[in-house]
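Progress report, Aim 2. The chain analyzed during this reporting quarter is listed below.
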Amino acid sequence: MDQAKKDAVLNAKTFDELLDIEYGVEGTPKREQFNADAAAFSAEQTREKTISRQQYEQALERIEELLPLVNDYMPSSDVNAVELALASDIVEEYEKAHYPISRNQH
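Predicted structure tokens for the chain:
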């Protein structure tokens, strides 16, 4: 890593700034690939685990806390947006397993 990059990393104040340094800004091919890989990894990690009722309830509570902090104009890499997406994935997986919706219901 060259000195300019080291300085930029040391002076970064947010996780988003670190991602900008390493992968480029939102919309660049390298950053979009990172975002896609991170989302796929996250989804796979969520699917591989059995989610307990307690984890489900904690995720619901955290979603309530995060909703006021996240809006449509935030980058997808914002720490609160990422956490909200992960908590939502936990809720979705738990509900799929415990409250399945049948397509044949009238």
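Residues 23 and 34 are 7 Å apart (CA to CA). The mean pLDDT is 87. These observations will guide the mutagenesis work planned for the next reporting period.
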